[in-house]
Design brief:
Elements: H1 12-22, E1 26-27, E2 30-31, E3 44-53, E4 57-63, E5 68-73, E6 76-79, E7 83-86, E8 89-98, E9 106-110, E10 120-122, E11 129-130, E12 150-154, E13 158-162, E14 165-182, E15 192-195, H2 198-202, E16 209-211, E17 223-231, E18 238-246, E19 254-257, H3 260-275, H4 293-306, H5 310-321, H6 334-351, H7 354-372, H8 403-419, H9 422-443, E20 444-445, E21 450-451, H10 465-472, H11 478-489, H12 500-512, H13 516-532, H14 570-579, E22 582-584, E23 592-594, E24 603-610, E25 613-620, E26 623-630
Antiparallel strand pairs: 1-2, 3-8, 3-10, 4-7, 4-9, 5-6, 5-8, 10-11, 12-18, 13-14, 14-17, 14-18, 15-16, 15-17, 19-24, 20-21, 22-23, 24-25, 25-26
Length: about 625
């Protein structure tokens, strides 16, 4: 009875768990479901399989919790849970399941007839498709309605009597279920205030999370925390520990050099990223805990050098895109729809998995049709009513089409041409060529030697974003890239990038242009600056000019800033790709180059994933050794 797993209709599992994730936000006791369109899952599915049996065999079908249905073998029907005996010969099996509360899933247990590869899923309005599954759900007792998290126990490293109560601190930030046990009789069930920082946990009015343990098991709900405050408590009242809960995605990267500060930055970035990587890539573990398309796009680049786990990438891409017909943009954000298309290309380049791209292609095409339906007379994409045209938190001139948005559209055309059937490839190539001409005509300012935000307002306002995309997507030729470096990137008159989100793109562009010394200096100033303040994870935003007590405010909220944010893990990608010099040269990394920048390191002892291989990179005394190993299963 080996090699069985829970099966479901492709995409349903991701949509169900994405809905649960995007509905999990709680702010100061108030639930806050994500504001964008929630994609549902099919409530009724049939799974079908035919066998030619050589001998009598037995099997049992289990349905997900809360489901109902039956198993049909030939003309006979059986309930879930019944042992079914099949005689030798041809047999046709169908499992019909309905479920309102979660994704319809079945587990078929038997020696011959079992839920492995070969089952088809049918939703009655389309041709049957191969059923989907996950490596995390291979046990009939592990219900796919819930993730069963791996747990690690953390004891407090500090206990302080303060403000009339007890403040407990842990060595690092966690996503944990706090567990309390009273040490003497008669103690009331306490209210616990949780914080990413000491200041947040002690601020019982403004901290994000407060809760009481369940009397049955003494556990609080799973939340982000580093500190826990129990008002009106004394030492010895309660034993307390944190049950850190996570999905076990193996980290396949190590970075060790003779620069200890960079080693520490890489390690903290990896810890930060893994906290934000579970069923999906999340923006952070406090506040939103939502699946955002822009955050996910950057997470792909980091993940390719840290875990190279393609399953979390596939789950995230499926969840973000949702179902057809498509009526709204990813997270309601116009640029996030375009970034989703670019994300598919990033996935393909890392794993060479064309089958998954082909699975997504109909949704790529329909999403692109939505985007192309929003073009004005010049071919520029514009937002509709209720669309969010974001790009970044910056003071753009938003009169008319926004230049940076057109850069993304141009790159999306390239991606579509790359994966389109032959008969459609030319369409996207022609659209890209026409858009490039219009970009040059309408947005390039010869006097400023820069791209302007808007050509309709007459203000000729310049921000960095369009120029960064022009370099990143090779819209600018080599000579213009040098020009943009002088006139925009190193021009103090052009407003600086203020968010770590877009700073990621700026630092990559600087790396591509060869300004590695400047990038290294910024990594140490920005990420090293957080470490000097005692950070154990990297933050959503950091202002080196602010004192520690003012660092936690964001969005007008005294503790609105996330202190563990996925996009803050960018140094992993920058160090691996541009300083270690590890770059794939073919989809899936079957060919690659390694060229460490020896002006920055005397020694390197690194380990990184590259496609199906695991690479060990050793540099010492100017001698480079690269060893290939097979990645662990």
């Amino acid at each position: 009875m080996n090699n069985s797993y829970w099966i479901w209709y492709p995409g349903d599992f991701e949509h169900y768990h994405a809905m649960k994730q995007n509905f999990s936000r709680v702010e100061r006791g108030c639930p806050w479901p994500a504001f964008w369109k929630s994609e549902g899952f099919r409530n009724r599915v049939a799974f079908r399989r035919e066998y030619a049996l050589k001998e009598e065999t037995r099997f049992t079908v289990f349905g997900v919790t809360g489901s109902q249905g039956y198993v049909q073998v030939g003309e006979s029907k059986y309930p879930f849970g019944a042992e079914i005996v099949c005689s030798p010969g041809p047999v046709r099996i169908s499992v019909h399941i309905g479920c309102i509360g979660c994704v319809p899933s079945v587990f078929v247990q038997g020696d011959i007839i079992r839920s492995d590869d070969g089952w088809l899923a049918d939703d009655y309005d389309a041709d049957p498709v191969p059923a989907a599954h996950s490596r995390y759900f291979t046990d009939p007792d592990r219900d796919p309605a819930e993730w069963a998290y791996t747990e690690k126990v953390y004891e407090p490293v500090s206990a302080e009597q303060v403000c009339g109560g007890m403040l407990y601190g842990f060595e690092t930030e966690l996503t944990a279920a706090l567990e309390l046990s009273p040490l003497r009789e008669g103690l009331p069930i306490p209210v616990v205030y949780l914080g990413e920082s000491r200041a947040e946990a002690l601020d019982t009015e403004n901290c994000y999370y407060h809760c009481s343990p369940d009397p049955a098991d003494g556990r609080c709900p799973r939340q982000a925390l580093r500190f826990a405050f129990l008002p009106d408590c004394a030492p010895g009242d309660y034993a307390i520990r944190a049950m850190h809960q996570y999905i076990d995605i193996p980290v396949r990267a190590e970075f060790q050099s003779d620069d200890e500060e960079l080693n520490r930055i890489f390690a903290v970035a990896a810890h930060t990223f893994m906290l934000c990587s579970g069923a999906f890539f999340l923006d952070g573990i406090k506040r939103d805990k939502w699946i955002w398309g822009g955050d996910a796009y950057q997470s792909l680049f980091v993940n390719h050098y840290l875990t190279a786990d393609r399953e979390i990438e596939k789950r995230t891409l499926i969840a973000l895109r949702g179902n057809d017909p498509v009526t709204t943009h990813v997270n309601t954000i116009l640029d996030y729809s375009l970034l989703w298309l670019l994300s598919v290309d990033s996935y393909y380049e890392s794993y060479g998995d064309r089958a998954f791209v082909d699975f997504l292609w109909p949704k790529m095409e329909s999403l692109m049709e939505l985007c192309m339906g929003q073009r004005e007379e010049h071919g520029f994409i514009v937002g509709r009513k209720r669309d969010w045209v974001y790009i970044d938190w910056a003071e753009f001139d938003r009169d008319g089409p926004l230049c940076a948005e057109q850069m993304l559209l141009c790159e999306a055309y390239r991606v579509m041409a790359k994966f389109a059937p032959v008969e459609k490839c030319g369409l996207y190539e022609a659209e890209r060529a026409a858009l490039l001409e219009q970009l040059e005509c309408c947005f390039w300012d010869a006097e400023k030697q820069a791209y302007i935000d808007s050509f309709t307002s007459g203000r000729r306002h310049v921000t960095r974003h369009a120029s960064i995309f022009a370099i990143l997507f090779d819209i600018a030729d080599e000579e213009r890239k040098k020009t943009l470096a002088r006139s925009v990137l190193f021009n103090d008159a052009v407003p600086a990038i203020t968010t770590p989100y877009f700073r990621f793109y700026e630092l990559e562009v600087l790396c591509r242009l060869g300004f590695l010394e400047e990038v290294l200096r910024e990594i140490k100033r920005y990420w090293g600056g957080m470490l000097k303040l005692g950070a154990v994870t990297f933050w959503e935003e950091y202002d080196p000019d602010k004192p520690l007590e003012e660092q936690y405010e964001m969005y007008g909220d005294p503790f609105g800033k996330s202190l563990c944010h996925a996009w803050a893990a960018g140094p992993i990608y920058l160090l691996a790709r541009y300083f270690v010099g590890l770059k794939p040269c073919s989809p899936g990394g079957t060919e690659y180059t390694v060229s460490p920048r020896t002006e920055f390191f005397r020694t390197l002892q690194c380990r990184f994933p590259m496609g199906e291989k695991q690479l060990r990179i050793h540099l010492e005394h100017g001698i480079l050794n690269v060893t290939e190993e097979q990645a662990a299963e």
